[in-house]
Design goal:
Prolyl_oligopep/macrocyclase, serine-type endopeptidase activity, alpha+beta, elongated, 27% helix, Rossmann fold, protease, eight-stranded mixed β-sheet
Length: 959
């Protein structure tokens, strides 16, 4: 049989024969190949890998390798190459899934030869000359590091059956593309094969730029994306640039050794030097560290990355710049990033509409149109004219707003840069003129107007010079301010002599002031009531003090005090009492606790002839609205909602109507109005834009946690989704916050792309009342993490996903959840995104608002509570020799709640063990400027969520 194509090197000889409609390729060892190739049959693997008889005989539909197609131009070659590379990625994934046969023991042959040459050219004149030039051009230290890199790349990570020489010259496009393999089969980490092939594309780019290769018409990005899409995973940062350098040096070494000297070898060394510089940008930068171990309550606690707590330290600044570069380099390889960004932008174009707050004859409400970056505050004048009152720009956001009783004045708070350092001002609503303020040190607290409409009570921190250093974000007090007067002359009303972390809320209803005081975010509060009909607070009456319960109070037009409380009722009840004598003994149940549903809110329609009360409860986080007789509590009706979703922010204006916001997993927020007389519910404000959400199937799944506790999880997927899919699991599990069904562009974009999105309703949340919250706080915090692990196991057991397709995501307390999950059960997850997280639980109280959360987590100052915290603190449980998932930390420079040092320290710890242990999965830090923990511009949200989704897609195989 005559060969139609034949080519050879010193190591391999390839002959191509025409055979029927296709071709037969035969590969044989060349004269310099002195090792007997292992004869390995791979049965039942991907059809691209062909072993029809002889180990090195293949049948293909074409005679040309993929390398030849590059010269054909993008119009002809592009689709062919992309398909061939995608199928090759699938083939490599199938190859790597096979256990390495016993006879395949050698590491990567090319890197083995390169490492040996760097140690000793073995008398080869040309090879020795080349090594000397490489030392001069690359540097002796860096060249020595290249040898270490060879050994690191061939000796680390879980070994798989590697192709060992994946190359464009070994890919034969056609109806059934073929990846030639056989004589270079070896053991090594999975990403070495993939990176070696990607490195060839990088090498070609550099060769074209250096003028030593003809201009090739190919799109590197699209070819890389095709290969990664087929394989389903992304190599670690810097891999293909580093391997590109090693590949070029290997080829140069082989040429010098087996052929001899050529001046073009100098150019190849220059290319390798350029690639190494690019690779170094993608390698983990060394973090400043100390050999620091403290003895805390008899326990030695290591904290090597303490220097990263100081963002102003020059070493920390340098490290952060390098981390930014590393993330940006990695982000360029996230080939779904732009697609997610576009889809998120379209989903966000639905905008937002908030329910009205009625004051006098005016309605006030927020709205965000498509294209607007922030919520905008509007008013509806008595004549029906709608006007914009506040339209923030840039990084400025509205933190809070409260009109005066007659709607003539508006107290509002703005902050910038994400720092939530609110400035309080007062506007004349009719003219839009600012008539008072700004008053500083007012961190997002509602204002309580007095009946005169010219004075109000508000919460303000003490000046920095009156508090100990480091406590400037605490020490709040309640003041009385009269519009137009100097804030320095404001009257101190409440707050002296209490704990520095005490948080106050004030409210005035029908001539009565309530002051609520809680220690940080404690689920209990003290409550006082005072008559303000005289224009200033009278004597304070105790409603509850020193009681392990939370109570809110408002006084109705009928003169009764209505109390919403979980005292002796973990799921909440409504009681009434006399405001003149509000002690617990006088309380009378109006609407008792429901055995399953959790009380969330109520609206009082008390100027009707027969006053009514609209009650909001949640049953497994889904809202139910009912109507009750306000005098007896008797059930009189129900308020229908569009579906199993969330109704919130009930408001009234006097009369029979109640307004509320509604959303569910496919419905952007709209505002509905219900008339209790007619029982009719109508749309008051639709979403300003159009989102066109994809079809989604949502269902609630119940599973058992480690201790047998039943936990619920909302699972979303496309209606036709089948089989294991890439899955994104999220949760929160803290502070009594419920994970209620709501419109989420991030969730919808993931589901539309083919993934499964799951929300676990963990202990620590509020889905089943205060007992559910307390089952996941303080010493019981491990329950939250166990619930989350069990959710992952349930998703896998039900066939919805697999561990190598499962990503987890959480922010703030949810970021702590993700940190604990990836350190406790890393084998369950392929990727993890931890946003604005708490991760060093030994030192969390020392920064941000951490001291306010000791009632939720415990305090490291207490020996028993320290033991709780240290037992799960993610930063302190990073270990060598563990195959961690891919991790992305996202933080904002302006975060004044959770200090970004948590993510910095954890990132450094994981990068160190990943580098030393040779783990392939990347560990990245994304730092955002001019943003904080809370509200941000829509474009910033889209950019962040697109990066998160693209990262998760890259490491779970979402295509």
């Amino acid at each position: 049989m005559k060969s139609v194509n034949e080519f050879a090197t010193a190591h391999v000889r390839t002959r191509v024969y025409r055979e029927g409609p296709g071709f037969r390729w035969v590969r044989e060892p060349g004269p310099a190949y002195d090792l007997s190739p292992p004869g390995v049959r791979l049965d039942g693997v991907h059809p691209v890998l062909r072993f029809p008889g002889e180990p090195h005989t293949y049948r293909a539909g074409g005679a040309l390798p993929a390398a030849s197609w590059l010269a054909f131009g993008p119009a002809k070659a592009g689709p062919v190459l992309r398909d061939a590379l995608r199928r090759t990625g699938e083939a490599l994934a199938a190859l790597h899934a096979q256990p390495p046969p016993e006879q395949v023991t050698a590491p990567h042959p090319g890197l083995t030869r390169l490492a040996a040459w760097l140690d000793d050219p073995q008398g080869q004149v040309a090879a020795a000359r080349l090594r000397e030039y490489a030392r001069e051009r690359i540097g002796a230290a860096r060249l020595a590091a290249v040898g270490e890199l060879c050994r690191e790349f061939t000796g680390t990570g879980p070994p798989v059956l590697m192709h060992g020489a994946a190359s464009l010259a070994l890919i034969v496009p056609g109806p059934e593309p073929v990846l030639l393999t056989g004589e270079a089969l070896s053991r090594g980490p999975w990403w070495l094969d993939l990176g070696w092939l990607l490195a060839e594309l990088v090498e070609l780019e550099h060769a074209v730029a250096a003028g030593i290769a003809p201009a090739l018409a190919f799109d590197y990005d699209s070819l890389r994306e095709a290969l990664l899409d087929g394989y389903g995973r992304t190599p670690p940062p810097g891999t293909h640039h580093a391997l590109g350098a090693l590949r070029v040096l290997t080829h140069a070494r082989d040429f010098a050794t087996y052929v001899g000297w050529d001046d073009q070898l100098l150019t190849y060394v220059d290319i390798a030097a350029s690639m190494l510089k690019k690779a170094e940008k993608r390698m983990y930068p060394p973090a400043p560290r100390l050999d620091l171990v403290e003895n805390l309550h008899g326990t030695p606690v290591a904290d090597p990355y303490r220097p990263l707590e100081d963002p102003g330290d020059p070493a920390t600044k340098q490290w952060l710049v390098a981390q930014d570069d590393l993330f940006l380099e990695h982000a360029r390889d996230l080939h779904h990033r732009d697609r997610f960004r576009d889809r998120l932008a379209r989903l966000q174009s639905a905008g937002f509409a908030g329910p009205p707050s009625w004051h006098g004859d005016r309605a006030f409400f927020v709205r965000r149109e498509a294209g607007q970056e922030h919520l905008v505050l509007h008013t509806l004048d008595p004549d029906g004219t709608e006007r914009v009152l506040l339209e923030p720009e840039g990084t400025t956001v509205i933190d809070a707003w409260q009109p005066s009783p007659d709607g003539g004045l508006l107290a509002y708070q703005l902050s910038s840069g994400g720092r939530e350092e609110s400035l309080l001002s007062v506007m004349d609503v009719a003219t839009g003129d600012v008539v008072d303020g700004p008053i500083d040190r007012c961190r997002s607290t509602l204002v309580a107007w007095l009946p005169d409409g010219r004075s109000f009570l508000y919460v303000r921190r003490l000046p920095p010079d009156r508090v100990p250093k480091g406590e400037e974000r605490y020490h709040r007090r309640v003041y009385l301010h009269r519009v137009g007067t100097d804030p320095a002359e404001d009257e101190l009303v409440f707050g002296e002599g209490r704990d520095k972390a005490t948080h106050y809320r004030v409210n005035v209803t029908n001539g009565w002031l309530t002051v609520s005081a809680s220690l940080g975010t404690s689920p209990r509060n003290d409550l006082w009531l005072a008559d303000v009909s005289s224009g200033r607070p009278g004597a304070f009456r105790v409603v509850q003090e020193g009681v392990d319960a939370h109570t809110a109070l408002r006084v109705g037009r009928d003169g009764r005090a209505y109390l919403m409380t979980d005292r002796d009722a973990p799921r909440g009840r409504v009681a009434v009492t006399d405001p003149a004598d509000p002690l617990y003994e006088t309380w009378r149940d109006l609407i008792p606790e429901d055995p399953e549903a959790v009380l969330a809110d109520y609206a009082l329609l008390d100027d009707l002839a027969e006053p009514l009360l609209v009650l909001s409860r949640t049953r497994d986080a889904v809202t139910e609205l009912t109507v009750h007789d306000a005098r007896t509590g008797a059930l009189t009706g129900a308020v229908p909602t569009p579906g199993p979703g969330t109704a919130a922010a009930l408001s009234t204006r006097g009369g029979p109507e109640v307004w509320f916001a509604y959303t569910d997993v496919t419905s952007p927020v709209s505002v509905l109005r219900h008339d209790v007389r007619t029982g009719e519910t109508t749309l008051w404000a639709a979403p300003p834009g159009s989102a066109e959400p994809p079809p989604v199937e949502s269902r609630v799944v119940e599973y058992r946690s480690k201790d047998g506790t039943p936990v619920r999880m909302l699972v979303m997927s496309a209606p036709d989704a089948a089989g294991p899919r890439p899955c994104l699991l999220t949760g929160y599990g803290g502070f009594g916050i419920s994970m209620a069904p709501a419109f989420s562009p991030q969730a919808l974009a993931w589901v539309e792309a083919g993934g499964v999105y799951a929300v676990a309703q963990l202990r620590g949340g509020g889905e089943r009342g205060e007992q559910w919250h307390r089952a996941g706080m303080r010493g019981a915090k491990q329950n939250v993490f166990d619930d989350f692990h069990a959710a992952a196991e349930k998703l896998t057991a039900d066939g919805l996903t697999t561990p190598d397709r499962l990503a987890i995501m959480g922010g703030s307390n949810g970021g702590l959840l993700v940190g604990a999950a990836l350190t406790q059960r890393p084998e369950l997850y392929a990727a993890a995104v931890s946003s604005a997280p708490l991760l060093d639980m030994v030192r969390y109280e020392r920064s941000g608002l951490g001291a306010a959360w000791s009632t939720e987590y415990g305090s490291a100052a207490d020996p028993e509570e320290f033991a709780w915290l240290y037992a799960y603190s993610p930063y302190h449980h990073v270990r060598d020799g563990v195959d961690y998932p891919a991790v992305l930390f996202t933080v904002a420079e302006g975060d004044t709640r959770v200090d970004p040092f948590h993510a910095r320290k954890m990132c450094a710890a994981l990068q160190t063990v990943s580098k030393e242990g040779g783990h392939a999965a990347p560990v990245l830090l994304r730092t955002e400027t001019d943003a904080g923990h809370g509200a941000r511009a829509v474009s910033s949200t889209i950019a962040l969520e697109a990066d998160v989704l693209a990262f998760c897609a890259a490491h779970t195989g979402l295509r």
